Predict the 3D structure of the following.
Amino acid sequence: MAADFSTAHLIAIDWGTSRLRAWLVDAGGKELDERESDEGIGALAGGHEAAFEEITAGWPKVPAILAGMIGSRQGWREAAYVPCPAAVSHLAERLLRFRTAAGQDIAIVPGLMADAPERDGDVIRGEETQLIGLSDSEPDFAGVAILPGTHSKWAAMDRGTVRTFQTFISGELFALLAHQSFLRHSVAEGIEDLAAVPDFTLAVTRIVEDRLPFAAALFSVRTRYLLADTPRDQNLAYLSGLVIGGEIAAALQAGLLKPDAPVRIIASTGLANAYRAALAVAKVDAEVRDGGKLVLTGLMHIARTIGWIKGKAA
Amino acid sequence: MAADFSTAHLIAIDWGTSRLRAWLVDAGGKELDERESDEGIGALAGGHEAAFEEITAGWPKVPAILAGMIGSRQGWREAAYVPCPAAVSHLAERLLRFRTAAGQDIAIVPGLMADAPERDGDVIRGEETQLIGLSDSEPDFAGVAILPGTHSKWAAMDRGTVRTFQTFISGELFALLAHQSFLRHSVAEGIEDLAAVPDFTLAVTRIVEDRLPFAAALFSVRTRYLLADTPRDQNLAYLSGLVIGGEIAAALQAGLLKPDAPVRIIASTGLANAYRAALAVAKVDAEVRDGGKLVLTGLMHIARTIGWIKGKAA
């Protein structure tokens, strides 16, 4: 039996560097279909329109709203960064809108730009839509939203407005140190639950509480293995604690994180647990939100704002 | 004409992970011959005695003193770390001495171990001999000796005694970030004179003077390229400044570096210039010493201490 897509009103796509995820939804935002592919923009040399036609093949030609690296210089078309502070209305005004050769309406959500002269600014592309998704479910949230990952993003949120944000390359730094540096001989390849290992908390405590500088702490991963025969899985947790601790210490120092501010961690369970445990060392109590559907929620929120689907406006 | 090695008294070898450098000297320390090879211990799976026989082939079977990773667990034989504070007399007492199958006397200089509970200790192997070499030419030196490189070593020296030291993995971290991370797209592969680029000093200033945390600064290498079109060679200098600045800020915070303490940088010209320029930002005036011959000086100093060659004792 063929699927019934007659009520379809919108296509929403999260199109990053390595992955592409597309949803077909009705006027009320109900999901009718979902598709995934590994044709992220990193895997494409041009041909974005063809890739779009492929992932949406068989779906009605309803308007499509897209977020992520698809709006970058290396993407389909470049959607210029919107300066912070930015609310959903600013993003909606600056959507990059065009029509495909097949006559389908497209809107690409622009990234955000932060004014941070001490580090020559900052940029986000894709996560702004997750932040809109967070505000959709918690319109009054005022505090810090953390999106950990390869490049962690910390956003200062104020009732739907992204005031400013900061990027830390912690995930990438951890992977380089654990797998590419000489420290790889002193750590395990991977373990189940980093945050449950006491060495993780020890490392965070040294960096965040005892203020051991991150750059001064890295060699200790080697000496722990060499002088104290620390098992490699415990040592991997220690290295992770140093990196996440370094991120938290920097956020505290920058005034981005305050012990009494409400914090949301938007991530999958394992990573969220690690960040929550690390933040607890800094006496910060964070709540976890599943990041899986937040992009879709954000895309629908923006689509409602421009009248592409029904329901509450922004 | 065959070389005249009849006055030979000592073989001195600097045997590291990737290189091997051997000298034949007379009783007064005069060099009679010098050889190099890439048979570092990283290239050898056992067979160290054969490699020794090969590099010293044709030389008289005089006693040989060796320093570097050759004394590690992966080396010829393991010379246990000597705890700091340590003077040349401590190293001389703890030399690992044995005789080869061919009847030649061997002494391997042990590495040093620092008691640093906040980072589970620290170790040096090879650089201790350069520090002895520095003390040989400046017996009254009291201050900090910096040996920059893949793994930078900072030693607190006090008239021939290594009081304590600290390792920073700056060189390796820089190489990983510049060549393996996503930042590689934003920086040049290499440039001539890092320290002469204003972006280098800007980065050091931000980290050392403005106290921008190292972990918070890394993404700026990307945004400078993306938002300000900073040329990639300038951006490489900026990244280098962040890494070296992070090292200096950490040394200042640890109390290892004090603005008024005498500082020696032991390195080749390019790297030495970069560290000297970076230290100048911290108002530290450092003198540069060529590291090339310091190992040999150190090895001869230790050999004199145990009576293997003549001249002033330690």
